[in-house]
Amino acid sequence: MKKTPPVPGWLDIGAGYESSASSERIERTLAWLVTEHLPIFLAGKGYQSGPAILLGANDQGLLIDKPRDWSPCPKIRIIFKDKARLTNHFDVRILSESLDTLQSSRPQEIFRLQRRARYRVDVPHGCHVSFRSDNTLHTGLTLKNISATGMLFFSKKPMSLPRNTIQDIALSIPAGEEENILTGWQQKKISQGDVVRTYHDRQMGIVCYGVAFRSKRKEEDELTRYIRQRERELILKGLPA
Q1: What is the separation of C-alpha 88 from the centre of its chain, rounded to a whole number of angstroms?
Q2: Is the pTM of this model over 0.70?
């Protein structure tokens, strides 16, 4: 898939991510993190730290404040928020460690996960949605992705929806993080929405429906919190091996 630059210096690499290999951009970002003593989070296979601090950066690599609960990882992801409150990360190798610090390689690329009002996240397998349309209750429909302002679901057969407006929307998603259904399920409820798009995916043999929510402020806020949680799960899924 061809990469396209949405803004100068950034490449769209899909799934809501942008990346940049600009040494100048990386240098500015590292200097900003060090100077402002901003919190960073370290993540590796089976490990995620609490807030840590980037102590220094030079041509040889990074000097990181060693988390108290540090669990040795050969490669880590350094996660932080930028000035626009967007989630960014670097992938680096741990070169050495002392009692209080970690020494890592210098990042070669920076990644940024865009969060727009309509930014959608894929939901875990097994999530579904129910709603009412003209007093008919539709249940067990497979949910594909959601945003703070809408959703995409599908069915194996075309649905009879006399009107575009649907009510009493209930999104069933895991109560805990990731796809651990043992934690149970929770429902996120939306008052109503409008079916704004319908199309057949002939390769998959399904009919997809795009819905724009007409939600209350509290409903949208709750959904936004889940989207941020899911965003975090997706970031951690791609940890360096």
Answers
A1: 11
A2: no
Residue 105 CB contacts under 8 Å (≥ 6 apart), including other chains? 61, 62, 92, 93, 95
Phi, psi of 24 (to 5 degrees): -65, -45
Write the Ramachandran bin of 61: left for phi over 0, alpha for psi from -120 to 50, otherwise beta: left
pLDDT in tens, the chain (241 residues): 344 444 457 887 766 678 999 999 999 999 999 999 999 999 988 888 999 999 999 999 999 999 989 999 899 999 998 887 788 999 999 999 999 999 999 999 999 877 555 677 888 888 999 999 988 899 999 999 998 889 999 999 888 886 788 999 999 988 766 555 555 788 899 999 999 889 998 888 999 999 999 988 888 888 888 887 887 777 776 666 5
Contact between residue 230 and residue 125 where contact means Cβ atoms under 8 Å apart:
no
Cβ–Cβ contacts within 10 Å for residue 1, how many? 6
Domain harbouring 221, CATH code: 2.40.10.220
Strand partners, 121: 146
Q: Residue 97: which CATH number?
A: 2.30.110.10
Structural domain boundaries enclosing 103: 11-113
- For the chain, the domain total comes to 2
Question: 10 Å Cβ neighbour count for 2?
Answer: 4
What is the distance between the alpha carbons of residues 181 and 88, in angstroms, rounded to a whole number?
29
